[in-house]
């Protein structure tokens, strides 16, 4: 799928997943990490949005492991999560990144090529519904966003209530991600912190 489709599906998936994780959906840092996660698997493709910005890493990955190889597998998802948690990153931040990452893999599974989820095994999984960049892709993105919007609406989420959530902005997302990435990591992993839960703050 196209990068913009991955970002839209990643953000929509994050909005649906965040309440289940007791995390604020519009928090800039979490939203930013979900967007990063939704683009990250394509680091193995030099012509992708993220691949063009991460040369020569993307060129090396494409040459050695190929596109839709290890970075689009369960091994990469769980390996990345385990590594980030081991490095002392907060569980909420890792969860947001993982939700975005997972949404990317789910979206790519809707294309004819499918995914090698059990990489290094060669078997591919997928439901071929659309080709990358085709009108069907736009339809699928609209259907995903519509379904998640319907789900949230029936869960009692209204645009007015969302305004009470901690606000996000494009600059805030960048700041939040940079803060998380550059946050000093303690010498040993701290005890798991409880995340903010309960109803969103009012006013
Ligand atoms: Zn991909």
Automatic annotation (TrEMBL):
InterPro entries: YdjM-like. This is Metal-dependent hydrolase.
């Amino acid at each position: 799928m196209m990068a913009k489709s991955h970002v839209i599906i990643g953000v929509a998936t994050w909005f649906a997943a965040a309440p289940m994780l007791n995390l604020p959906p519009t928090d800039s840092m979490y939203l930013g990490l979900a967007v990063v996660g939704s683009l990250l698997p394509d680091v193995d493709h030099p012509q992708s949005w993220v691949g063009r910005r991460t040369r020569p890493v993307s060129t090396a990955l494409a040459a050695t492991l190929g596109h839709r190889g290890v970075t689009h597998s369960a091994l990469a998802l769980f390996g990345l999560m385990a590594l980030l948690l081991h490095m002392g990153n907060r569980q909420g931040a890792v969860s947001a990144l993982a939700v975005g990452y997972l949404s990317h893999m789910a979206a790519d599974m809707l294309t004819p090529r499918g995914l090698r989820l059990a990489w290094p095994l060669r078997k591919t999984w997928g439901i071929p519904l659309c080709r990358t960049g085709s009108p069907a892709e736009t339809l699928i993105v609209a259907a995903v966003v519509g379904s998640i919007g319907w789900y949230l609406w029936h869960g009692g989420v209204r645009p007015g209530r969302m305004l009470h959530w901690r606000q996000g902005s494009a600059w805030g997302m960048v700041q939040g991600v940079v803060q998380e990435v550059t946050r000093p990591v303690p010498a040993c992993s701290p005890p798991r912190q409880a995340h903010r839960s309960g109803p969103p703050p009012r006013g």
